[in-house]
Amino acid sequence: NDEARLRDARGVIETFKSAELQDYFLDDCVGSARQSATLSAEPGIAVVYPIIQPDRLDILVETEAGLSYTAVPVSGRALSARLGRFRRQLQSFQPGYRETGRALHDWLIAPIREQIAHAEVLVIVPDAALRLIPFSALYDGERFLIQNHAVVVTPGLSVTIAGETPDTSRIVLAGLTENVQGYDPLPGVAAEIQALSELYGTNGVVLLNAGFNSEQLNRVVAEAPLSILHLASHAEFGGDRQDTFVLTWDGRLDLDQLETLVRASSGGTGSLALLTLAACQTAMGDDRAALGLAGVAVKAGASSALATLWSVADESASKLMVAFYSGLRGNRSRALALREAQLQLLNSDEYSHPGHWSAFMLIGDWH
Question: What is the reported pTM?
Answer without folding.
Answer: 0.94
